[in-house]
Amino acid sequence: MQKISGKSDVYAIIGYPVKHSFSPLMHNSAFEALNIDAVYVPFEIAPEDLEKAVIGMKLIGIKGFNVTIPHKEEVVKYLDILDETAINAGAVNVVKNENGKLTGFNSDGAGLLRSLKLQFGFDPKGKSCIIAGAGGAARGAVAALASAGISKITILNRTRSKSEKLIEFIQSKFSELEMVSEDYPFLDSCKKIEADLFINTTSLGMHGEEIPNLNLSLFDKNCIVYDMVYSKNKTPLLISAEKNLLRNANGLGMLAGQGEIAFKIWRKVEPTEGLMLKVLG
Ligand code: ATR
Fold first, then answer.
1. Confidence check: pLDDT of 1 > 70
2. Ligand 1: does its nearest atom lie under 6 Å from the Cβ of 189?
3. CA distance linking residue 34 with residue 272, whole number of Å
4. Of 94, 122, 241, 259, whose CB has the highest number of CB atoms within 10 Å?
């Protein structure tokens, strides 16, 4: 473990809960590997304390922090500057503190793109994608895919009003992008589903739950199935993808990707290649 000195820089993650987070492991390993005098710590912050916590971050000179569930959207109003990635996603997962000015970024979407490129050589330009879920995680993914030139996104969500709200938000920024809202029966109601990518952004699968009506045998054989969930056991989604011989991955690559991008934002250098993913394994 690296030694902490009076000059050490302090980084953090705020969430509620936060105990499950792998970010301290990823960032402390990267600091150690590069011999950087810095430490990364978790803080559990209840929603009603978020504003005070953000003010506290400035006051005690935290150099940067990650923001996780449930604060990613709420934290936006307490920051001084928003990077384009945060504006497009309407959510922040990385904050940089420069002389008391807090800038918010979103590295979740770019982490997803990095993982898709690294694991499958996938380039979203001109492609089509189906996304299950319309919450904060979906927002980051949709904004990054839109920025990278994807042609069509179908949002599948339990609550249709939420998918419509997300579509309205994204299309106000990316007017040329085709976006459609569907309910889960759509997955089992067509003869063939044409999509280059299917992403689960919901928590379904974390405890073995299935995605309703999912029939992957209807999917195009080249479709990549990406599950943002990263549980110890394979999710029913990934088991089904394997049965149907579809390329697939869990969310660990994205988790490492967003961490690598956050690290670069804070320290201006990339962490050792592959290290963050390795420590997660
Ligand atoms: P996150 O920031 O992780 O995306 P979120 O904003 O709470 O979390 O969004 C969770 C998403 O998963 C939502 O789209 C939610 O659907 P609703 O909009 O209908 O709430 C979806 N989700 C969560 N549990 C679900 C379940 N049991 N069945 C179907 N969808 C579910």
1. no
2. no
3. 7
4. 259
